[in-house]
Design goal:
10 strands; four-stranded antiparallel sheet; mainly beta; 114 residues
Length: 114
Amino acid sequence: QVQLVESGGGLVQPGGSLRLSCAASRFTFSSNAMSWVRQAPGKGLEWVSTISSVGGFTRYADSVKGRFIISRDNAKNTLYLQMNSLKPEDTAVYYCALTGTSSRGQGTRVTVSS
């Protein structure tokens, strides 16, 4: 059974940065594309970013393009999301997900507020 465990969330001021991590296990991480999705309070799931299995191809939602960077370390079975220039509208629970499946972690909460 796929296991995904996110960490790194917290409270940050507007304009600040956070780095989220996702530890993956119980599947072949290096063979799979991975994604980050988020859910803002009272809203549905929103796709944020996707990275290919070896990291050579990335995609971003327009709302985060130029501010967020997705990356992965296949040797450590870990997915990352570097979030810069954070805005209050980035406040959400962030989930890592096995792309193309319903598998995702328990989420890590990010709050952007002064």
